Amino acid sequence: MEYRYSPEFKQLIQNEELVKGFLTGSHVVGFDFKLWEKRRSFIADAIRKDGTILDIGCANGFLLRSLQEWSDHRLVPFGIDIEPKSIEKAKALFPANANNFVLLSIEELDKAGEKGIPDKFDFVYWHVWDNVSFENGEEKWAKSALDHVLKGGRLILGFYDSRESNSERIETLESFGLKIDGIEINKNGEEVICWIEKA
User: Fold this and answer.
1) Average pLDDT over the chain, rounded to whole?
2) pTM above the 0.70 mark?
3) Side-chain half-sphere CA neighbours of 74 within 13 A
4) Structural domains counted in the chain
5) Is there a domain that residue 1 lies in?
6) pLDDT tens digits for range 73-121
7) Does some domain include residue 113?
8) Residue ranges of E strands in the chain
């Protein structure tokens, strides 16, 4: 798919060194922007209306900035991360929304309001880290993330491991009683997203 990027974003991604820094800061190694686009742009398919979006573990915010370009919908970005340098970089990437990025861990989501960001969002995105098996009590994090989705919104979970591992972890989540409403497999890689609707 060919994306019609905004002039500001085009200028941003034309600088290969800058993009390399963004990708490294997003904990992605060995990607250039074209590969990043192929491996992450499908996430935008799960976003089906305008609204607020919280990225749990947002790193430097580059995924959120990219999602704004890949989605047909207007997204107001929010992000949490446990790394102060990452939050500072995210603030710099979103100067008009700098206050939307705060130091906070997934375990502390209930303190979002105390940190000056909303308590609930239209979309919550969490790239489920490869070291999370959901067999050590981490399912509570997914349930907490769902609690922070507005009615009519969506919790989107991204899995970037092998196809087999991704499927196993989604099945494990379902075994804990979380109803998965949709699954999409990236046509250009191993990645999978699933989502849960907030009724």
Assistant:
1) 96
2) yes
3) 0
4) 1
5) no
6) 999 999 999 999 999 999 999 999 999 999 999 999 999 999 999 999 9
7) yes
8) 51-56, 75-81, 101-103, 121-127, 149-159, 182-185, 192-197
